[in-house]
Automatic annotation (TrEMBL):
Domain HTH lacI-type residue range list: 3-59
Protein's recorded name: HTH lacI-type domain-containing protein
Keywords: DNA-binding, Transcription, Transcription regulation
Membrane-spanning parts: none
Gene3D superfamilies: 3.40.50.2300, lambda repressor-like DNA-binding domains
Domain of life: Bacteria
InterPro entries assigned: HTH_LacI (IPR000843), LacI/GalR-like_sensor (IPR046335), Lambda_DNA-bd_dom_sf (IPR010982), Peripla_BP_I (IPR028082)
GO MF, one example: transcription cis-regulatory region binding
A Pfam family this chain is assigned to: Peripla_BP_3
Amino acid sequence: MAPRLNDVARVAGVSPTAVSLVLRGEHGSRVSAETARRIQEAARRLNYVPNRMARGLVTRRSGMIGLWVPFHGPLLLNFFLGQLLAGVQHVAQERGFDLVLYSEPQEAGARYGSIPAQRLASSSVIDGLLLVSTRYTTPESLHGNLDRLAELGMPFVVANHWPPVSSRYSCVGIAEDERIRLALNHLVGLGHQRILLLGGDPSSVTAQKAWQAFREQARAQSVDREWYDTAGGRWYLEGGYDESRAYTAVFRKLLAGSQATAILAMSDEMAIGALRALRERGMRVPADMSVMGCDDIILASYVDPPITTLRSPAFQMGVTAAEILLAQLNGDSRPQQVMLHSELVVRASTGPYGQREESPEAPAAP
């Protein structure tokens, strides 16, 4: 016979109520840390698994957290999102919650998915919602749908988005202006004045923030201000946050002729696409063009040359977002805005401007 909650209480030497509170993660200060440890140890020893249906009848909760991710290419191959979801799973598993993934496929001709606020909020399947990677969502859609979720009473946290959409809503993200400042400090410090920004569609939320921050900071740091005076035609490329679109964008730019000496890609996937385009055009990295990425995915250190990048705390973002959401479910409705920070990782894909290596001479005939 499967162990019951009363069995855990007997082994731990506590009341069934204490067991229920601890295993639901709702004990707070009502149960001491030592008692909570004994209860968790007893549950592990007995291989106790809570009856979700029975618990739901009492608590009116499903014990499930929803994650909404707009459809954008092969989701499971996206390293950043994979790390973020792993962080969410880490917290959820510790607290006895399961995850439900929602993904909206793009309609024909549509560039971004929209948040199905009404359907998600009326779902009896989930207790709360994490909205992940709203960078693929237009500003109008994002603001309207978050307001709708709040009106319908669905607890939610926005992850991978900064600055916060509103002071009323909880948000965890990485500041685009800080990332761009770190990147430009590195590239301009190497002598690069004409830099291409490889990003997403300018109509998306995060791409707009990156576009604006890049132009302002590049004009402030660069002596070649004229390069950045145009609306972006010279220095902005849409790479779609994936290798193939970035490859096409960079290849076409090179065919058309460009005086840039460095590329800043807002994801490592796009940086990898840029490396391929440069290689096929016979250009050397970093001798002819420096390339820099963002996120520090696993492949960034294995491609040739290894990519200089900005390491993003994706796992910690998932952990923090999940903890804030579970706090909401336990009655803490205070909006929390948490900004995480990137770290510069210098590798071989960036180098000083003007120090171009001579091509190796062919070996002399014997």
